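> run fold ABC transporter permease
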Amino acid sequence: MLAFDSSDTPPTTEPAIKKPSHGSESYLALVWRRLRRSWTGMAGLILVGLLLIMAIFADFFAPMDPKATDVGFAPPQVMSFHDKDGNFVFQPRVYALSDSEELDPVTFQPIVGMDYDNPRLLGFFVKGAEYKLLGLIPADRHFFGSTDGQPVHFLGTDKFGRDVLSRAIIGSRISLTIALTVVFIVTLIGTTVGMVSGYFGGTFDVWLQRFVELVLAFPQLPLYLALTSLIPVTAPTNVFLAFVIIVMSALGWAQMSREVRGKTLALARIDYVRAAMAVGATDRRIILQHIFPNVMSHVIVAVTLAIPSVVLLESFLGFLGFAVKPPLISWGLMLQDTATYSVIGSYPWILSPVGFVLVTVFAFNALGDGLRDAVDPY
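> ok
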């Protein structure tokens, strides 16, 4: 009889079960992984990041002092890689603007031409107008501009000869500050009111919702104009800016609270919330630990979609003269120069702030659309 040798048989090994790599990922990791698959969401995220960096370091990115004056209504200077003889050169340059003795037959303004005998070389991290970085650190370096510190106007100048590009970059700080501050206040008040109203319900919810409906019933635009017109012209700029933010916030929180209330009413009937009530958890704990995390996904998306609305509202009110006042700069205030068709037809480059508004609205809407799909990874 042959003896059985266990060494003659190959060992049997069970194949290891490989778990999905994302099985133990957190909720935020799942949201980020799904957001990366959306090219519109990532494009919006990148643009939002660039806009915020530009607003924070606006003085550094602005090539000129936004208050410095030059030739009024000068056209944009085109960057060129050729000298006056048409030869290719590696260092880009622009040509200075000069007034001629001829007058425009429509506007009767001196015709502005290029002075090809005085090129201005361009470069990065050049010296220019002095400023305080973040309002604290004295500096004179700018991200780009002329190497000799001479004025350059990539988007032309306004009627006072101020550089449009520099003013638009500086104006992003005010416009985005108003939008982010208003949305923060609206989100804080609206989320709190909505969760409390939806959770407690009953008579408290009925009366609170009647107040919300009263706020929603106000015609917002006439009320904006009426309230902002109450501020004296001689009021300090900070007071005027704070009043504009308060008015926008006071009229914008009601819609957010109504949306959060609807989510809270649905969450209050879920089993784990009822179980927390049964074991004696306090109302504060249930709201903060069980309801608030579940409404945050909706709130985040609502915030990214509300910021463009506030930017557009600020631009509209600024165009009408009911938002910020000089010496502050905002995109809406810059658009006041476009009030007449004759100006737009003769000097179309003063519409440049519209491009900044469009990019901002697209960036936040694209990010909000990507987040709306990513907040539910399952």
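The first strand starts at residue 80 and ends at 82.
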